Amino acid sequence: MLLADAPEPFESKAHIAELKIDGIRGILEVEEQVRLYTRHQNDVSYRYQEITQAAAQATGKGTTLDGEFVVCDITTGKPDFEATMARFSSNPKPGIDRTPGLTYVAFDILQYKGKDLTKLNLMQRKEILEEAVTENEVIKKIRYMEHGFIPLFELCKQQQLEGIVIKRRDSRYYPGKRPEHLWQRVVVYQREQCVVLGYSKREIAWLIGVEIDGVITSVGMLKYGITPSVRKEVFPILKKTTIRETKDFAYVDPTIKIDVRYRHWTKQNKMRLAVLERVHQ
Length: 281
Prior knowledge:
By secondary structure, this protein is α+β, with helices and mostly antiparallel strands. Helix content is 19%, strand content 36%. A hairpin with a 2-residue loop joins strand 6 (102-112) and strand 7. The two termini are 41 Å apart.
């Protein structure tokens, strides 16, 4: 079941709220063998034997969980998305290469003791999840709040967490679907004024930078929010102000200012998931 987007947090007695874990969505199936699948149904069990072994200890056969697998910073406890993706891209040796902070956080249960639970409401599934899973070093259960959603979101801002998910208490589970208003994510974004440094010749994307004390520093690639109308407006200016070209990129005078929202700064001082919000006239 996928998440819809909400522009801002809200309070509701018909909902609960959870932290949005900045990891990789994963379905964990515990049968004779334990299998871990990504949202796109790729079997990654062989890469995450710490999780599959821990799941076999945390719950019984005939259990299917929905959650996120994530690498957390062992000092702060916060999800580390770059470490999560580095772990996902690696090919660890079973039983030898273990990743400190690797965790599977379960937030829903789809099957228990072989019985399908997807037609039960969310709070009934939460009760069964609490009974079905015993936490250990790797397998955890998400905590939820029944009120105070807005203060929780503000706390996410302060702590630079990804945001929250607000879920209807009576929601059934719809595998692979994104029902409107049932599960809604509210993401914490940062915002910055940037300048366009160039554009890609291979895809619809702009090179962007930030000016600090008169010095412009590249902060990565902008791929989202460049609508057809924006391209029509801006591309002639980019062509006119091009100062240098390579096989893949054209570089321009940094005259176009834009407003950008993004998730956070990466360890390489780049903007993660930058989205265009406005082009300055």
